[in-house]
Task: inverse folding
């Protein structure tokens, strides 16, 4: 069953260009992974430093495998240098029945 993964980050001021480039790289990396379907990036209306990436995967196991990928972990470490706080992850099944 397809799942959507919500990745919420709050970034420090003044890094939007670098963050944008890193998010594009992250999406490019994910596109080559088994089970990846799509993703979108949302920026907070009330807090423009809050960025939410919503990605869709064929199965949660596909996302879990990608989340543990070495290149993704390396990019995540770079994100952490620009964050106010921690990255928050949430996974949701599409529909009411699993």
Result:
């Amino acid at each position: 069953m397809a799942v959507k993964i919500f990745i919420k980050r709050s970034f420090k001021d003044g890094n939007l260009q670098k963050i944008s480039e890193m998010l594009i790289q992250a999406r490019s990396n994910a596109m080559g992974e088994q089970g990846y379907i799509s993703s979108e990036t949302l920026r907070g209306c009330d807090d423009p430093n809050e960025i939410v990436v919503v990605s869709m995967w064929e199965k949660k196991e596909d996302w879990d495998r990608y989340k543990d990928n070495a290149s993704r972990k390396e990019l995540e470490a770079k994100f952490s240098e620009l964050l106010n706080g921690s990255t928050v992850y949430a996974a949701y099944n599409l529909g009411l029945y699993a």
